[in-house]
Amino acid sequence: WQVGSNRELEAKNYLEKHQIMELLNYLTRALLFSRPEKPREYLISLLEQLRIAKITGVAFPFFMDHSNIVSVFEMMDTSNKGTISFVQYKEGLKTLGLLNEDEVLKDDGHVITLEKFRSEVKKRTEKIWSAF
What we know:
By secondary structure, this protein is mainly α.
């Protein structure tokens, strides 16, 4: 037993340390968002862009541009108030693959504006890519 649980713990720690699950989740979301004709080539291209960005310091590949983020926000803001609830905010981040199931976000009691949502999407995306 001990050997198996040790190996599982090592594997879990390795995946967490290198943010592999976040990257795979993000790549999957990008793939489903873009739905390219050649998915393998698309994923290879994204990873190659990431490698080049890392070497040159150029911006990372980001599949959610401003209009896409606005669209996601507007889908949650069904009453067109310009704000979403904290629960919607968390669900939006989960949907985009930017929030782990076990991650705890603190609700400060404020509603979430488009700018805050956009900023958080950008920050979390950069964090995922910067790990590589």
